[in-house]
């Protein structure tokens, strides 16, 4: 009889303790529910974006009239002009000067001709 009372007291104590101890399984379940809900929202948002992109790609392209290319005389900066003249004084050929200054050979000729 002594043992039955002791076991009953231990059982009552364990029941009382179980009310005060937080249930980690419940916490984990709520975290998993939140995670799955967030994942579902992100997946559906990606699907909507993908559908929009697919619709845009399937649309017929609109024809846009592009203006005719006009040749504009490029303005050569004074620093580049002085660099070209210095390279010419050092004896570099026109193609070498063109490579170093990122100008065309015609532009190099115009700089050297205008510089003299």
From TrEMBL:
Official protein name in the record: Resolvase HTH domain-containing protein
Top-rank taxon, per record: Bacteria
Keywords: Membrane, Transmembrane, Transmembrane helix
Annotated transmembrane regions: 6-22
């Amino acid at each position: 009889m002594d043992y039955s009372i002791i076991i009953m007291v231990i059982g009552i104590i364990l029941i009382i303790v179980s009310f005060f101890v937080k249930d980690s399984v419940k916490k984990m379940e709520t975290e998993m529910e939140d995670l799955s809900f967030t994942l579902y929202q992100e997946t559906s948002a990606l699907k909507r974006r993908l559908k929009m992109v697919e619709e845009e790609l399937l649309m017929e392209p609109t024809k846009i009239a592009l203006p005719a290319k006009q040749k504009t005389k490029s303005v050569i900066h004074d620093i580049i002009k002085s660099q070209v003249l210095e390279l010419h004084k050092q004896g570099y050929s026109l193609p070498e000067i063109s490579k170093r200054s990122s100008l065309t050979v015609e532009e190099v000729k115009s700089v050297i001709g205008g510089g003299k």
